[in-house]
Amino acid sequence: xxxxxxxxxxxxxxxxxxxxxxxxxxxxxxxxxxxxxxxxxxxxxxxxxxxxxxxxxxxxxxxxxxxxxxxxxxxxxxxxxxxxxxxxxxxxxxxxxxxxxxxxxxxxxxxxxxxxxxxxxxxxxxxxxxxxxxxxxxxxxxxxxxxxxxxxxxxxxxxxxxxxxxxxxxxxxxxxxxxxxxxxxxxxxxxxxxxxxxxxxxxxxxxxxxxxxxxxxx
Length: 218
Description:
Blueprint: E1 4-5, E2 19-20, H1 21-34, H2 38-51, H3 62-70, H4 76-88, H5 90-104, E3 106-108, H6 109-116, H7 120-128, E4 135-137, E5 140-144, H8 160-167, H9 173-180, E6 184-189, E7 191-193, H10 195-200, H11 205-214
Antiparallel strand pairs: 1-2, 3-5, 4-5, 6-7
Helix pairs in contact: 1-2, 8-11
């Protein structure tokens, strides 16, 4: 007999729809096919999902919906489509997709020690001293890939320490990674460049830190 589990089986006692064993099995198989360390990946994903706000069961009443339609914010068809999409969990799916893309753009400490040729103690010291950028996800250090540059003698992005010093107190790691991959109007070589490209090609790190300090994304 196929057993189904509910959110009541979770430690936090959430109520929710039932999840079949088959759905759990398929998720586990998908994770095993994607990740080098599937147990850690699944634990990190579970932690993220548990921290996410559940789909609200509250719905706007008829008067509130009528106001939105009559104000021109939505047509009746647009409201029906949006409401159905949100009810299916589109916002949660979008958040999860972004989180997954961010996680896949990080390296484990084993990956970093192998890439840099350092031992774990040296890597941890570099993190503590602000020479490497690391975040903790589900109890393990992860290293966003934007800080590494295989073409550099040190294999690190030039100006990394200065960049870490201004990013760390201002932005979460997802924002930092997004910024480093976004072309900026004030960083121009042969066209607009991302901060990663700018620093990789020898640009002045002060030009990048000034953008961070002003939060001037353009």
